[in-house]
Amino acid sequence: MSNAHPLRAGAAVADITPAVGISLAGSLTGRSAKSILDPLHARAVVLESGGVRIAFVLLDLIALNNDDTARARAAAAKAAFIPIENVCVSCTHTHSAPCTLTIFQSVREAAFIETVIQRVGEVAGKAAERLQPARAAWANGWELRAGFNRRYHMNDGTVKTNPGIGNPKVLHPAGPTDPQVPMLMLESMIGQPMAVIANFSLHYVGDRPGDAISADYFGEFAGIMRQRKGPEFVALLTHGASGDINNIDVMHKPVQRKPGERSREVAGWIADQVDECWAQAKFEDLVVVAATQDAYMQRVRKLKGAELEAARKQSKDRKLPLVDQLYGKERLELLRWPDKVPMVIQSLRVGGFGASTFPGEVFCRHGLDLKNASPFPVTAFIELANGYSGYTPTRADYDLGGYETWLARSAYAAPFTGEEMVAVAAMQLRKLWQS
């Protein structure tokens, strides 16, 4: 390929673990950390070929808002001498990390976020300093056991999220899963494993105490890969399209496990896929590295008329459950927002590996649609990247209803948002394939 040039790659890790006592994300109601089960990290991979440099930065956080992500990308760009549009900053979506968004009873931990942004600059800069001649390979693994669509058609005609294990009213899942594990593998010119950027469509596992800090199965994956590939190996497990995917099989009674055991199991399965692909990989030292991005103006859903008046009453009715009151307040908060919010849609290329970024918790169907539209042999759908846009269901799922469609600051995207974002990303991938 005429645009393929010698590859250089570098990777680094930085600790972002906060102190005990900080407020934790991932719940509608407030909670704080009483212990640290495992550390949180910022991980970075910088790649360069033909004068083009890009960076993937992954944070063990639930999400970052648009402004904070923009500052994190700027810090990485400055430290690693990379155009900001070539920097991807994404989150793992662990629910056992500090509050980074002001939603429901969670309040953004401003001081912690400033530290994280500083660490992002440091880790990207360190990865850039470690750039060395390298080889890359790409492949698709396959893991069927870990993911389940959490939305189900019920026998009363409704769709319910997380209906409960053994619920006799469950008919069948309301959407697909994606067992594919796209990955980019990197090694030195002498064959020393350096890093992997893997991608999988599964929410956090959440098998740790609710008041403990943990990187969930994403951190377990990184640890397992380091044990297998060497102490300097850097493993990024990015979040695939999984707004409606979890690890709970409601059709079968679960096996009793100790805290953390399920996370380690899932991480091990994905690590096994990396090992299998690595063993068969054909590494290349001449590859194309490229990136592009576009701004997408996301429409914000807002209440009108009778729904607006109902939300006002709901937010003040102390006779209602707390969650109902909180949803009423959330819907009123959106009235303060602009009608449209700019989001970043970005695509990056390393040889035959293509990756597109999306800011929300995107339904699995959108991820499958993008992969079907992509010309790349390996395509990663990286969500919770370069901002936060909330749940992004398919157009049909808005009509079916369910938790992910309930209007709030965590679910404010207008119908057709996901379809339009996928169309933008598909065009970007086509452009990069031709580069």
Describe the structure.
This protein is of the alpha+beta class. The chain has 2 domains: 383 residues, no CATH class; 34 residues, no CATH class. 29% of the residues lie in helices and 29% in strands. The chain has 9 helices and 22 strands. Strands 1, 3, 4, 5, 6, 11, 12, 14 and 16 form a 9-stranded mixed beta sheet that branches. It has a 4-stranded mixed beta sheet with strand order 17-18-19-21, covered by helices on one side. It is globular and about 65 Å long.
Quick take:
With 435 residues, this protein is of the alpha+beta class. The chain is built from 9 helices and 22 strands.
Tell the overall outline.
globular
Number of beta strands:
22
Averaged pLDDT, please? 96
Radius of gyration: 21 Å
The helix/strand class is alpha+beta
Task: State the end-to-end distance.
Answer: 10 Å
Largest sheet: 9 strands, mixed
- Beta-strand percentage? 25-35%
User: Number of helix segments?
Assistant: 9
Poorly predicted segments: none
Number of domains: 2
Helix content: 25-40%
Salient structural properties:
435 residues; alpha+beta; nine-stranded mixed β-sheet; four-stranded mixed β-sheet; 9 helices; 22 strands; globular
Which helices and strands appear, and what pairs or packs with what?
Layout: E1 5-15, E2 35-36, E3 41-49, E4 52-59, H1 66-80, E5 87-91, H2 110-129, E6 132-142, E7 148-149, E8 151-154, E9 159-161, E10 170-173, E11 180-188, E12 193-200, E13 212-213, H3 216-229, E14 234-239, E15 245-246, H4 261-280, E16 286-287, E17 289-299, H5 305-316, H6 322-333, E18 340-350, E19 353-357, E20 361-362, H7 364-373, E21 378-382, E22 391-392, H8 395-400, H9 417-433
Parallel strand pairs: 2-13, 4-5, 12-14, 19-21, 20-22
Antiparallel strand pairs: 1-3, 1-6, 1-16, 3-4, 6-11, 7-15, 8-9, 8-10, 11-12, 17-18, 18-19
